Amino acid sequence: xxxxxxxxxxxxxxxxxxxxxxxxxxxxxxxxxxxxxxxxxxxxxxxxxxxxxxxxxxxxxxxxxxxxxxxxxxxxxxxxxxxxxxxxxxxxxxxxxxxxxxxxxxxxxxxxxxxxxxxxxxxxxxxxxxxxxxxxxxxxxxxxxxxxxxxxxxxxxxxxxxxxxxxxxxxxxxxxxxxxxxxxxxxxxxxxxxxxxxxxxxxxxxxxxxxxxxxxxxxxxxxxxxxxxxxxxxxxxxxxxxxxxxxxxxxxxxxxxxxxxxxxxxxxxxxxxxxxxxxxxxxxxxxxxxxxxxxxxxxxxxxxxxxxxxxxxxxxxxxxxxxxxxxxxxxxxxxxxxxxxxxxxxxxxxxxxxxxxxxxxxxxxxxxxxxxxxxxxxxxxxxxxxxxxxxxxxxxxxxxxxxxxxxxxxxxxxxxxxxxxxxxxxxxxxxxxxxxxxxxxxxxxxxxxxxxxxxxxxxxxxxxxxxxxxxxxxxxxxxxxxxxxxxxxxxxxxxxxxxxxxxxxxxxxxxxxxxxxxxxxxxxxxxxxxxxxxxxxxxxxxxxxxxxxxxxxxxxxxxxxxxxxxxxxxxxxxxxxxxxxxxxxxxxxxxxxxxxxxxxxxxxxxxxxxxxxxxxxxxxxxxxxxxxxxxxxxxxxxxxxxxxxxxxxxxxxxxxxxxxxxxxxxxxxxxxxxxxxxxxxxxxxxxxxxxxxxxxxxxxxxxxxxxxxxxxxxxxxxxxxxxxxxxxxxxxxxxxxxxx
Length: 740
Ligand code: NOJ
Hints:
This protein is of the alpha/beta class. The protein is built from 19 helices and 26 strands. 1-deoxynojirimycin (NOJ) binds next to loops.
């Protein structure tokens, strides 16, 4: 055992001892108090929470971000309550605190865990300086429906990518030791399946077969548990008939018994009392019973536990062990955070919000998160030497707040550098920049600004359109049934197109959008998500070729919303479509028989392909993939195989590429997806440079829950691909043979 792991074990033993000693002194009322969390976002919380703290009947608050007030509440808890137990102070620090990083979906597009880790580290320090010691992030719900507004907060559609990014985020928030100033506890949410809301309508029910739940939705949560996420949050939604907050299969069978998770579980906002609204229980008392027996340890902003746990215990309906387990876990986190030794925030000891380091990290994150979807005639990068003028047009060119995206309670829009100001700065005096907002917001209709915009484009050498969605169009409870560009943006694009000038669309949005109706109207598209504080400078660098785009799509872009759900890791079906068999509506001959149009899995009007696939993203250079090779063609369970290929920068500029590894298990006891991401690596290559990239897979990496619901890699044949998107075509094969 190393000295440091021996030290960590000793620390854990010490904490366990201190927890046990404290628990032994607690009254039932004090224990139940620890299991409750209240909102502290209005008025002066000292007035309405002070007495509850003094009587030791409150374990946590949320939504307070003011170090002085938090310090005062901590002082009351520590000095004026009988046992002096400090508070957990929770807040939604989702993608930054004051300095805002790109949306999580944007960070996922970087395919770079360092982006997530560094961003979370900055967020933790800034949040800690406001008295916060617990964030409700990362959100690792698999999101395969872009109508769902919360796809913005997710890492997209893929379990592996989500697991890697989620784990890195947790490491960034929590650091190596939660007691270090500037680290905060993370919360993996929403356990589980929330992203599968019917029709992408937030809060709607989800129906997910157990194999699918385990193989897709639970995988990132397992990665989060393994990464040491201090807490988990249940989801609002009903999962197969049992809302997540009372779902004993998820909370007891999987999380506690199978995974041995030792952190604590918090409900979502009032989601215990909502069990009645769902129609699971008849009253709050029953709701408290179901939640506590399922394994929810703390109630967020509700009073079902506060009002009913005591009588449930005295009436013998629950056992004291359920309460002691919850309190033990909550206290353990408070000890781990070092709150018993120092509950106070020393703002001066933490770095200032929006400092240079934070802004540099935000800029790099934004740079790596932008995905270039199209670049006809290499219109990008713009040549600042050649151009005399550019028109900057659109509702999102100069909106310091909107570029931050959803969940930015504490985001400081005065730190934002907008695309317009970054372009102006880049242009200096040599390049004329004509700015026309054209639409007040992304939902505006045709107005006088349209003519002004056309005039500006006509007078300039190129038109840069900043389109998309304002921040309020995505996020919690902000789902859309139509995911096209809102308002009259498409009309604006058409009018600008008529000027005949090169048109570049830079799209800021919280979700994949359907862009088929503008794709032929613009030359280039940069999809920037909501890129955060430093979105402007990152976009300017990409537009003018200071850097090459390197983001890749973490979620499939449908052509039409009716294709949803559409994702790369789908089942093959018994009738997979091909370009030859899928006849499109306009190609159907009159009088054709029913069977002559294909008899395959596709839509007559949309075909079978998305507009842009998962993993896709262009660069200013070309990358070539060759010479795929395997260390072995046959391996046995427990073995590893190394898959390698050459990646060459075949163009003329240095750039980064995200090299991706996909696998298909050709036959399984349950059918397997046509491709699954199993590895990725971001590499920088000089012009002409070739590197050999190796990925190592253990047979455990190929394991899945099969027909018998056991996790195992099944013998048989596998295809592997290495390339720059989920449509990579450089392929090899290997087998897992039965152990001899
Ligand atoms: C409800 C959201 O679902 C959850 O993600 C968030 O952390 C809580 N509210 C607290 O704001």
